[in-house]
Amino acid sequence: MNTFNRRRVLKGMLGGSAVGVGLPLLNLFLNGNGNALADGSPMPVRFGTWVWGLGMNDAIFTPKKVGANFDLPEEIQSLAPVQKHINLFTRFNTFKDAAPLMCHHTGWVILRTGMAPTVTQVRPGETIDVTIAKKIGNATRFQTLSATSTGDVRDSYSYESANSVNAPEFSPIRFYQNMFGADYQDPNAAEFKPNPRAMVRKSVLSGVVDETNALMKRAGSEDKERLDQYFTSLRDLEKQFDLQLTRPAPLEACVRVGEVRGEPSAGLDTVKVGERHKVMTKLMAMAVACDQTRVFNMAYAGETAATTKAGYEKPHHTATHEEPTDPKLGYQIEVSWFTRRAMENWAEFVATFAGVKEGDGTLLDNCLIYAMSDISYAKIHSLDNIPMFTAGRAGGKIKTGLHIQGNGEAGTRLGYTMMKVLGLDIPSWGTLSNTTSKEVGEILV
Amino acid sequence: MKPVFRSAQLFRTAASAACLLLGAVLASCSGAEPVAEPKGAELAAVPAGIEASSPAQRRLITEQQYLNTVANIFGKDIEVIAQFAPMQRTDGLLALGASKAGVPSGELQKFQRAARQVAAQVVDNGNLELRLASHRDALMPCKPAAADKADAACAAMFLRSTGRLLYRRPLSDARLAQMVDQAGKSAVQLGDFYAGIATVIEGMLISPEVLFIEDRTEPDPEHPGRRRLDAYSYASRLSFFLWNAAPDDRVLKAAESGELDTAKGRARVVDMMIASPRLEGGVRGFFDDMLGFDSFANLAKDPSAYPSETGATLADAREQTLRTIYDHLVTKKLDYRDLFTTRTTFMSPTLGTIYRVPAKPGWTEYQFPEGSPRVGLLTQVSFLAQHAHPARSSPTRRGKALRELLLCQPVPLPPPNVDFSALENPKAEHRTQRDRVNFHLQNPVCAGCHKITDPIGLALENFDGAGIYRRSERGVDIDASGALDGKGFTDIAGLSLAVRNHPSLPGCLVRRVYSYGTGAAVDARDKPLVDFLTAEFGRHGYRFPDLMRAIVLSPVFYDVTPPAPAEQKSAAASN
């Protein structure tokens, strides 16, 4: 893959004309080695997730070779340009134990929470991105940011608790306005002017805090939890206002994007989903580069992916169950077509982050991105061997370019490893058969 | 109003109750149809022997309730671009998820952004060049002595009245004083009286008192030892149910005066609210939820299969059904069941291309002729397109939707590890959906559920995945015959009639309206009252406004069970 430079990435971003490309920033913001900020603090490490639907076909997805320089079977050939940035994890399992199999729900819930959901259609508890955000996401405007390319606000894989979803953004215009609109403080602006409204907004919150305290006193036990959460959110809002009053540290990788004026077409046609994914990915990458968040989620597909292919009557999910396996090729041709498109989008996601220069490396080098699907072989709703990826080097703590096989061990090992790498002091993660205290050592530097 | 309760009615109630039992969802309930009383008669008051209370809740305001409330208080021209987190659908309704939903950090930020949009518009000074009127002049009852300075008297006048409407009860003197003080300080800091006011409005709009609709309780003087909603909470419950918006000045005045504490007073206020044009917001809100119309947010059809069915078509399809429902149930006060056989609807030019009928600009009432296959809600594009694939119809989805949405009969999820090979490689002779779906019925694992859904879904096969009529599929005439719980039919008109006459249809509606209003799922304790209301609903001709009226005036709407107490130490205090 060609190396992206920042200018090139941004020039192509959002249709080119709508993007303002700033002058390249000098390394004066970094220390002499280009691996830390000028004040000596390390480059922040960010955590992201990416989800695609309906798994894969093992025969044409799983590389034969384990370790470095693994082969790329036809379903993942599109990953060639980013192979050096990613790790692929196969032959890891998820265990539902005595819980019922909730088809396209159980697998991703286990991989993102460590536990199998036990009741039909109940939302999961705290997901891994939220757990990690509590550790690394407190210094930015947004503790987490979630987006989806499906155009459906219901397609979320990020939960604070069973009753509190982090709803994803799907509108590029809204996403832009929230990130780079009136409240945006450009870290590289020559002048810094604190927003006087931020100060008065903060002072108004004191009255709201008083109201919350009064409500707490008469709340029942269930409601008290919700009000506790509200109170925490209020404090986060207060921090946001504080950030607007504080000059942000300069960030080389950050270049404010131009205003987004158009919305991609609605619908789940693969081409449209790809267009939305492209623009949301680029906005997300710049939101991360500009340190608006350090934890981010992107859903390429919703649970039970319903992506469609023009001229083919079955959506992706329906095709996994109804399309015949081609007797010569040994797999479902149309289903594989959908998976290949998903992998192309995953490659683009990784490449976009790798295309933003940061320090002596790239933004991706300072990220750890976790990608997973909801199922393995969708035709039979298999929970065994759900494929997973990581991308990025987590600030030098993770090796990349490896294919790791789990030999049937818990897929939660990867989530546990990532949390440890990102500084969470946890002895284990998961419940019942998904419990693990064993890191995937092969990827650790 | 005297309670009316007879032994025959008891019998009917029991029969109806059996139909409500979910465990027997698929059993045919063929109880005798209640004898309808003259149109316009009120449903009987709930007899003393039937007691019910609902849990005191704290419901998170929904996006539509927020938007309606802002429009009602500040004007319909206040624009809010917001996308709040969706509620979790529970027992068939998103509204029930509001009782559990929390506000994580990202969500509060969204509320704050929406609040800023609202506040900025409320105090804007208009634009002469763009011929935009000044909102501040229209909304504020006073002008400050100087626009660039604080003015406590003017601020207090505006914040007192606005706060009462947003908080749905009067602000305490102490809280009002705090707000006035904040507005004053902000005005000084920003050099702008109106900017100071805007800052306080922003704070109000993210207040937990505004975002959470709290049921506050008080001892019930008529039932010692029990608790009821206080008058303001009752006003809010009424208003969010009937209007899908916060109570207005008149309803709050009724709470203030004690009128809502008496049966006579409650009846007067409810009648006033039902007569209000705002009822449309409430009725639309309920049916939008019950029919699962949130799925329209991302519904799209494959343009290569259905080039004429665009996003605008689907938006109009949703609107068509809501207009049909409101017109039928409220404007014309007709029998709820006849929604499934009515040929009257509304047409837009966009929909005219799908229905293949001429249509005038805008929305106009339209009558399908006798003999037309368009009979009732099931044959409207909203139902047909919503419950289909992007490029083809789906008898299974349509059958499942009919069972779950309209008859309250949950269809089990597919079992794990199903061998789908029977569905593969459809043979050349399988040219219709009926042929293909029959595969489901050959596999005993699949057949258990597909027997519930597919036969009724196949009756809608004369409509493709876009809801466009077709006589045949791949050259084969479509067979739309089938049976619904023992009632056979030969075409879609027959299915519509079978649904119209299905004994579970009215009970399902009552159940949904009841839990939508109370914010809690119906359980065994509610059964006697739900059964009573169902029987009364039938006895009075299935008039929907009468049902709404009976529910809000029934004890369940104001007798409440307080939540379990929590430890008094709050997170805030410990922080």
Structural class of chain A: alpha/beta
- Per the CATH scheme, the topology name of the largest domain in chain A is Alkaline Phosphatase, subunit A
Quaternary structure classification: heterodimer
Tell me what portion of residues of chain B adopts beta-strand conformation. 5-15%
Largest sheet features of chain A? 8 strands, mixed
Distance between the termini of chain A: 24 Å
Largest interface: A-B, 88 and 80 residues
**Can you tell me the overall shape of chain A?**
globular
Helical amount among residues of chain B, as a percent range?
A: 40-55%
- How far the N terminus sits from the C terminus of chain B, by CA atoms, comes to 54 Å
**For the largest beta sheet of chain B, what order do the strands appear in spatially?**
1-12-5-4
What features would you describe in this structure?
The complex is a heterodimer of chains A (445) and B (575). Chain A is α/β, with parallel strands linked by helices. Chain A folds into two domains: 6-24 and 42-183 and 254-443, Alkaline Phosphatase, subunit A, CATH 3.40.720; 193-246. Chain A is built from eleven helices and twelve strands. An eight-stranded mixed beta sheet of chain A has the order 2-12-3-11-10-1-7-4, with helices on both faces. In chain A, a hairpin with a 2-residue loop joins strand 5 and strand 6 (164-165). In chain A, helix 5 packs parallel to helix 8, helix 6 (196-217) packs antiparallel against helix 7 and helix 8 packs parallel to helix 10 (333-354). The model of chain A is unreliable at 1-32 (pLDDT under 50). Chain B is of the alpha+beta class. Chain B has a domain at 59-214. Helix content of chain B is 47%, strand content 6%. Chain B contains 24 helices and twelve strands. Chain B has helices at residues 7-20, 63-74, 94-97, 105-122, 135-139, 152-167, 173-190, 193-205, 208-211, 231-242, 249-257, 263-275, 279-290, 311-331, 349-355, 381-386, 395-407, 433-442, 444-458, 492-500, 504-518, 527-539, 544-553, 571-574, and strands spanning 54-55, 58-60, 212-214, 217-219, 227-229, 344-347, 364-367, 472-473, 476-477, 482-484, 487-489, 559-561. A four-stranded mixed beta sheet of chain B has the order 1-12-5-4. A two-stranded antiparallel sheet of chain B has the order 2-3. Chain B has a two-stranded antiparallel ribbon with strand order 6-7. In chain B, strand 4 and strand 5 (227-229) form a beta hairpin. Residues 1-40 and 567-575 of chain B have low confidence and may be disordered. Chains A and B meet through strand 6, helix 6, helix 7 and helix 9 of A and helix 4, helix 7, helix 8, helix 9 and helix 24 of B.
